[in-house]
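Dear all,

This email documents one entry for the complex benchmark we are building for the journal club exercise. For each entry we list the sequence lines for every component of the assembly. Then comes the predicted three-dimensional structure of the complex as a token string, followed by one or two observations. Please use this as the template for your own entries, and keep the labels exactly as they appear.
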Amino acid sequence: MKQSNIALLESEGSLYTLDRFTVVPVLQTGGTIRAIEGEKIAFPESSSLSVFPYGPSSGGMVESVYFDILTQGEKIQHVGYDADFKNRSIKLSGLTMNEALLRIERMNGVHCAAYSSLFCNICESGINMDVPDQVKYLRIAMMEAERISSHLFVASRLTGGASQNIAHMNILLLREELLRTIAMAFGHRYFFGVNGIGGINRPVDLNGFAKKIRHITDEYNEIFRTLMDSRVFIDRLDRSAIILGENSSGPALRGSGIKKDGRNFHTYYEGLEFRTITADGGDALARFIVRSGEIQESAAIVEQAVSRVSKLNVDSQGNERNHSFMAGGFMETPSGDASMIVKMGNGRVESIGFRSPSILNMQAFVESVSGNTFADFLFGYESLGIWICEMGDFQ
Amino acid sequence: MKAWILRSFKKGIITSKFPRGKNETASPWSTLPIYKKGKQDPYCPAGAIAQGKVDANRCISCGLCYPEYEPSMDIHGSESSVSVSALKKSIRIYQIDVGSCGACNLEIGALANPQYDMTRLGISFTNTPRHADALMVSGVLTENMREPLRRAYEAMAQPGVVFAVGACAISGSILGKAVSDALHIDVTVPGCPPDPFTIMDAVQKARGIV
């Protein structure tokens, strides 16, 4: 099913929805599915307007995506997009929980920890499995390290785009150090295969992990402070792609001054101390400031989580029984909150409803960038941390 | 400006000596797993394990074969059917994502990190296939990307080298079709995603340097 602005699941002629930051799917009577379709622009009649087709494969983008950019001189009048080029339509129906988990991990490999934790959390609550606190804290450590890595990547894209080459290289250097630290601790730079239903699949070594992360984030903080002294850098981000209101997700939402973070509502994060970072303005600069603040907060969360994990046994509990349930959940991924509904029957996935943060943020982006100059396009897009891979549908 | 210069001096040289020296690190499960113990082949969701051996092209680096298998930490798992001496001095690479999870894209991009610094080996990225000597393809082949991939290949200067980066591109892994369904693959770079050192090693092999 195609993703919409809320998680939808269609089962036996009924439609279930899951609101943001909630875990209980609601039955909709007489509901219809609002599929979002990439809007393409008809070629303009006016000779002063021109359409700039961009993509689907282009050296400037990390992933394959197509944009129609309608411009009048330097000014962007309208942007349409098609994110379906690399839609893999990942097949999940008929699979066991463990088989589905491997595919969920690869829905967005860069945010594997968040999505695998979300799926495990939903399945565990669906089968009423009691998961040890240590497993929860380990997942938090994974997700927060992943958040730092993802935010560093966005920061590297912004500094690279603004030709701040030394800062760009320094941030790439830190991200590489972080990935190597993650690989040493978890055996994989992107956490593939670590999470299992009810536990973990292989041993982890957290010795020195939190300390190394703190060292990396402290170094980033120095870079951030130096960047904030650079008028050249700030001018490139300031007032680019302004997003206000609740129609965005994650750092974009908080960058418009709204203090909403899925971690504040999630049971995993109860008892952990961290600040919800917000900024004013809703522009690319505000989102950059939010991400940079969150990098520091994530380091603090990693420290707290790791201190609560002592010795962990490798044990993903018996989960291949014929479970039947419908359950929902959400998780704050580095790009924003994701919602998912899972329906299992006789131990097999019957259907999955999903809404990724990139669905919301892409729509917010194309609306916000109209009226900006052409040069703002990159900063608007990159500052949102949009991942096309997670915008696809499931079979 | 002074702050940046001081930072650089403080950091010193951090670029790897690879390929002249040994790779300093490796992402453990992105390297080929090797048999350690146990009598039977363990469960492999990708069907990559048979009779005590792992098919590198199918392995999705999930580590579910642990503890019977453990990572080899060998980053030389790529295979090249070409050795293009014309590219020994420099090679320009165009990266194309035909349906990836994003991880392979970032690992290819990581070659530009200071730790790897691909430019010291004459490797660089280009933003258009017209200027490329090689295509690095990541992800499973989606139907909508079949045509852009073909066009990118045709735009590339010949002899163009095609790298399939990651299990998805090489074999379709557990998610879909392999890139070989649309193009002939010259170099396979196994891993899910491959370690950046593995990708760098594969580029050197295609140039006939290793």
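Observations: Chain B is about 20% helix and 20% strand. The mean pLDDT of chain B is 94.
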